[in-house]
Design goal:
Elements: H1 4-12, H2 15-26, E1 29-30, H3 31-38, H4 42-54, E2 58-61, E3 73-76, H5 78-85, H6 97-116, E4 122-129, E5 135-141, E6 147-152, E7 156-162, E8 167-174, H7 181-196, E9 210-213, H8 217-231, H9 247-255, E10 259-262, H10 268-273, E11 278-279, H11 289-328, H12 330-336, H13 339-349, H14 365-377, H15 383-415, H16 419-428, H17 436-442, H18 448-457, H19 473-486, H20 490-494, H21 498-509, E12 510-513, E13 519-521, E14 536-538, H22 548-558
Parallel strand pairs: 8-9, 9-10
Antiparallel strand pairs: 1-3, 2-3, 4-7, 5-6, 7-8, 10-11, 12-13, 12-14
Length: about 575
Amino acid sequence: MASATTNRLRASGGPGEELLLLLNDHRVMTTDQLARATGTPDRTVLYRLDRLRADGLVGYDRPGRHAGSAPHHWWLRPAGARLITGTAPADGRRPSAMFSAHAATITEAWLALREQSPAVGLTMTGWATDRAGWQPWEGRTSAWGSATTKQLTPDAVYEALLADGRPTAAFIEVDLASMTQTQLKAKLDRYRAYARDEAWRGRFPHCPPLLLLTTTAHRAVTFTRNAARHLGESSSAPRYGRRLVDDFDLIDAHGRLVVAATGLVRDPSRAVTEHVWTLTDPEAAEVTLTALLTERAAAATAAAPAYQRQKAEAHRQQLHDTLRRIRIRPRQLEWLLSPPAVDLVRYLLDSNHDPGDAFTPRLDTTAILTDLADWWRRKPRSDDATAALDATLTRLHHRAWSHQVRHLAHLTHQDGDRPAWYRAAAHLAQPRLLTPGEHHRLAQARTRDEAQAHIWRYWQPPEHRDTGPPPSYPAWRDEQITVQWNHLSWWQRQRTDPADLAAAFDDEHLTVCARCALTLPATDTADCPGCQHTHRLPHDQRHTITSLADLITPLLDRTADDP
């Protein structure tokens, strides 16, 4: 049958429950530690503990002593653990003297940090001991392709805020001269693997330093020296306080395992406040706990921009690789997206973009290509996602197309028509975007007179065998018309206009480009040098060709619905 004390704890808690919770968290505590933790006089705490012990909820011992003034070391019995957590320890045996001393020492370190941290610019935000502080993680993949589960078992995990609000953390290990240097080295191996696998990411703001509290300064120095050799630290390796020069250094310093030790395990308050921590760098002086944690937090702050740059570079490289695959396999894109969407993608993937070109539409190219790459990498691609991307690209294609049409119309209104612009209008009528190379050449296109002069510059009359320069077409035509005129009778000359002879001669020896109306020699069968069109018309049909302004007008009408 439960006692009155137990029933009261179940019903309303109270001071006794607070003692049980502390013992549950710290495993073993002395009477003095419980008094300091609760802010209650020793006699009151002892009275409450005796009541709990009488109910079988707690037990005590005096490790190593059976009489005298040895402190009581209290722990939860199975009934007390069941009352607090709902479960009991695997066995209800009395803890060993070594376990009690070790656990009480960890508790003393917690109290020292809690009591002294505010004075040195630290605010404790977390403390976890035993299993609550253990750190499981998935280790590196083995040669057979499987990941190995590992576990770090620090005595305690300390988390705090610095005076400026930056978070920090540390792993605490307590050595009561019970571990050999070989055992400490094995423990250090696990910490090194934890840091190497970057298992702390997502849990702590930086790789928590390993802080060893041991019994003497000599043991502390021996441990740090052995740690320096084991970690491979040398004069050329990263050192405490070393100036960092690039992103690799910053990231390496952020994830580096820092090891420090002090011989003040029996006086942890001094370990919190004084310059007593020995580092692995033999040239570094002893530092305070605050300085050590501040350096770690500073490494995290300094590495943040480096990680952002690294992430941005990784994203840029991933985007580049995805877009390269799209360029290599455009046929798959044609199967999934509409022609306007594919046309826009091809335009944006062109490497000859010039943002200063007036034909270049004002689009957020990076965002569009990022969305395209995200969709491309998604496997499987849903129909809804494909339809949404296609609708977006089609809308943006119309915006870009409208921009190019309007600018071509502006050039036509400002500078008249140029043969190359007819080709641009024909492409836009398909509708197809002008590529960066095409609209770059439009700005340098010849005027109609320059294009026509270029054609005549390389023209030669038929059967020209003279060594001198050939005559121009007008001069050659006049020569031929003069010959024809001289062969006419007086009566024929009265009824013939030389201009009609010239017009008939032109109709026989000239053609016109069916698109831009440039005059071309009938003997020249190459594409039109002005607009690269292949179709010709007879010279007497040159007036049937549509003007550039009339070609652009219906295109402008199709841009009316573009915002």
